[in-house]
Hints:
Blueprint: E1 25-26, E2 37-41, E3 44-48, H1 51-58, E4 71-81, E5 91-94, E6 97-100, E7 113-116, E8 121-129, E9 138-145, H2 156-167, H3 170-174, E10 176-185, E11 190-195, H4 196-201, H5 204-213, H6 226-242, E12 252-258, H7 293-296, E13 297-302, H8 324-344
Parallel strand pairs: 4-6
Antiparallel strand pairs: 1-2, 2-3, 3-8, 4-8, 5-6, 7-8, 9-10, 9-12, 10-11, 12-13
GO molecular function, one term: inositol hexakisphosphate kinase activity
Protein name: Kinase
EC number: 2.7.-.-
Amino acid sequence: MSSSDTPDKMPETQERHHTENNHVSSFDHQVAGQSLILRYDPTTICKCLVHREYVFYQHMPDALRPHVATFKGTTPVKISIGEASQENGSLQHNTRGFKVDPSRYRALQKTDRIYNNEDEEIYQFMKLEDLMYPYRQPCILDLKVGVRQHGDDAPQEKVDYQTQKCLNTTSHSLGLRLCGMKRYLIREQTYEKKDKFYGRQIGDDELKNEIINFLHNGEEYRFDLVDPIISQLQKLEAVIRTLEGYRFYSCSLVIIYDGEIENNAVGDSVDPNSMNNNVPEVPPQQTSNANSVNDLVKARIVDFAHATYDGFEKDSVRHIGPDHGFLLGLSTLLEVFNEFKKQSL
């Protein structure tokens, strides 16, 4: 669909009391972002619908679609607000809908509310491909990409805040900032996690090390993932260079792979902090639950609430050329992975 087409209207729900709550459950793999995400079915998540992001998905260039989660439509979800008692996550199901902790309610305030009364609130959600499928122990690296995070429509207070945040972090120098990460440690059978606050504190070299350490499962590096990651990043970079006037403000790039490998026979344990000095030879390739090399690892762009292009939603700012800030981030990633590949040979 061309970006010059007239943007679609927001989806309407004819039966306002009909919801999909029987299918929706808690989603346990969100490592960053404020959006409320639920699991719709084994291959689909649903994310609270923000108008700009919804329209962007409708009119996304075809060349970009292989590099994002597949859009699968919309669904209404019944929500109630209150203290959630579930230990893992902020959601629990009851007769009035999914109970969302008040700390997560902010995510719903930008979402289209279909219906509300004293007993229930029904919100519109987007259905998207679950990028964690078919992984059993998904490992996720969430990187904010670009040197600018605020959208063209942001109020001055937010412009000032976001500008300072970028200037004072690796966003300014590398076009990347760590927003969230979790990697599966085979021996401990648990996850190591890092959050956005950690990402704001680390410097350039530390971030590059974290990107490489993401591929370490506590016992060895997943060298089998490096070439597929480089290939996907190169294809994405080529597409972004062709997108005249597009800006991907506040978008993230997620890299996801399965931390559970079928053959758990691993080589000698390697200290990830020693990467710059000594890299072991590539061990025999391990296999995961992925069905093909295309599923072995995924690199995808997510979160388009502040993305724009010429004529999008009557935005008044016209941008010239491709998004060089986003390209800087991709260039940094390619530099990191290519250097890692050279050291591993």
